[in-house]
Design goal:
This protein starts with 7 loop residues before the first strand and ends in a 27-residue tail after the last helix. The chain has a two-stranded parallel sheet with strand order 1-2. It has helices spanning 19-31, 48-60; strands at residues 8-11, 35-38. The chain is of the alpha+beta class. Keywords: Acyltransferase, Transferase.
Length: 87
Amino acid sequence: MAHIGSDEVLIVGGVGCNVRLQEMMGQMAEERGGKVYATDMRYCIDNGIMIAQAGALAFARGHSTPIADSWITQRFRTDQVHVDWRA
């Protein structure tokens, strides 16, 4: 929240199943006047929801990538990916 100036946190992926993490994130968000959201447990085991959310946000801001120009890697760290479409 502090690094990107957001007042919301979305917990996804395998760690989203961790109720203690949800509690701790909720307390942190509340202390900063923000909110925390956790995905339904059915989706916490799959990062597809996180990828879909990022894609929806990018598309809503006018970004798209033709299939021929797209590619996949698991080597990116989330803190090293340049995101120029975030409002």
